[in-house]
Write a structure and sequence with these properties.
By secondary structure, the protein is mainly beta. It contains 3 helices and 34 strands. The strands form 9 sheets. Strands 8, 9, 10, 11 and 12 form a 5-stranded antiparallel beta sheet that branches.
């Protein structure tokens, strides 16, 4: 297991005996401009990615430089090379065709929101590119899984609040398609209620984005705080008007249109059952909305949150649509699910989702006023509960396993790793957990 820590250290841990095989701490001489807080912690944030061909794990240090570490020994085999601004907030790294990709958000370290790419095939001649989608402000790309990479190498991402003027290079609250070399924006989709989403801080990236193939068509599925799920055509995100989705669900949650605490958060998952039926799963915070469609299988009241499962079907017009499948049991703010061998895993995070002292404020006179209204790290840590891992039947939502009180603290924006019949998770106090299901083949 490989874990990136906020101490600017990467750890390699033997999953069998829990021993640390190696650790590598990066040295930096950069000094942050501002004091850290939870939105801009001045620590590494991007999930590393493994290059199986080269036996290297790539990660971004706190000073924005990329390192490639040997999987077996932890020694530096690639870099360091400057990649993003020091103390910028980068999201999960992805690797495709020898190119490393990430996104950034929230202007941490003075960064402008954008896509970043670096070709890693030749360590003696590194090519680096960026595509900034914010000439004004905002448009943070805080997708938990980072970029989504299409079948032809197209790079997809969604953006948060800010200015919207494609002619000037501003793309807030949109789904974007960029060329593999990030030389230009190929296409985009903007919801018809873009202005309202922007006004209410209902960012699209909160619910993430994924890509899958359905009946020969490349489909993207994403959702945001508003809790509307969009299915988009990978070859033409929004049609001629840039506002036409293949499918848009009704509002599924967050009837109050709150900018925090409710809505779709995390990242969706996809499962193709027996190479035939395609399922997609989204994690919802809070109760379902009255406008949500009925689900044939439910598991009781869900006041704190749930996982929603949908079957992908063809509509009468031949376009993919979503058919409700099941709702999980109540989960205390569920995080991004993962599916393996017909089992869906998800963490009930137990976190405190409140961000502000005074709720609902959208406009501030200054950055200082905005920061004063934010809860402190200590305040956000109050009122939390230990996280719980749940395993559900991916077809029916039936609860197969839950970890009870095994985890000691809550989690925030973390992810699950599923490998070799085990599930791995890390809590807020940096404990690494390993779980397995007894009596089920492969787990």
């Amino acid at each position: 297991m490989f874990v990136s820590g906020t101490s600017n250290t990467v750890f390699a841990i033997d999953a069998a005996d829990r021993k640390v095989v190696w650790n590598h701490t990066f040295t930096t001489f950069a000094v942050p401009k501002e004091e850290p807080f939870y939105l801009c912690p001045n620590t590494p944030n991007a999930t590393p990615v493994i290059d199986k061909e080269r036996h290297v794990i790539y990660t971004i240090a706190v000073d924005g430089r990329v390192y490639g570490l040997d999987l077996a020994a932890g020694t530096v085999k690639f870099g360091p090379f400057a990649f993003i601004p020091a103390f910028a907030k980068a999201w999960s790294l992805n690797l495709h065709d020898h190119v490393l990709y990430t996104t950034t958000s929230q202007a941490c370290g003075g960064d402008r929101s954008g896509l970043y790419a670096m070709r890693v095939s030749d360590p003696m001649h590194v090519e680096w590119d960026e595509l900034l989608v914010r000439k004004g402000f905002g448009a943070g790309m805080w997708l938990r899984g980072g970029t989504v990479i299409g079948r032809d190498g197209t790079i997809y991402a969604s953006t948060g609040d800010g200015l919207f003027d494609p002619n000037a290079g501003d793309y807030s609250n949109t789904y974007l398609a960029a060329s593999p070399d990030l030389s230009h924006v190929k296409d985009y989709f903007a919801p018809s209620n873009w202005r309202d989403l922007n006004k209410r801080d209902l960012d699209l990236p909160s619910g993430g984005l994924l890509e899958f193939e359905y009946k020969g068509r490349e489909v993207l599925a994403g959702a945001g705080k508003e809790s509307v799920i969009y299915l988009l055509d990978g070859k033409s995100l929004g049609g001629d008007t840039h506002g036409q989705a293949l499918y848009a669900s009704p509002v599924l949650a967050n009837e109050d249109r709150a900018l925090e605490e409710k809505g779709i958060w995390g990242s969706p998952a996809v499962w193709i059952e027996n190479n035939q039926q395609t399922w997609v799963y989204f994690s919802v915070w809070g109760r379902l909305a009255k406008t949500a469609p009925p689900f044939p299988i439910t598991n009781g009241d869900t006041p704190h949150g749930s996982i929603l499962a949908f079957k992908v079907r063809n509509s009468a017009s031949g376009k993919p649509t979503l058919e409700p499948g099941w709702i999980s049991t109540d989960m205390n703010l569920p995080d991004a699910p993962a599916v393996s061998n017909g089992v869906l895993y998800a963490l009930a995070t137990g976190e405190n989702p409140r961000q502000d002292h005074v709720l609902g404020i959208i406009q501030y006179k200054s950055t200082e006023e905005w920061k004063r209204n934010l809860l402190t790290t200590a305040e956000r840590s109050a009122g939390t509960h230990p996280a719980v891992l749940k395993a559900l039947d991916a077809r029916t939502g039936k609860l197969l396993y839950q970890s009870g009180d095994a985890m000691k603290t809550w989690v925030h924006f973390t992810g699950l790793a599923v490998a070799a019949g085990r599930v791995f998770a890390v809590d807020h106090e940096s404990r690494l957990y390993c779980f397995g299901l007894r009596g089920r083949k492969g787990f």
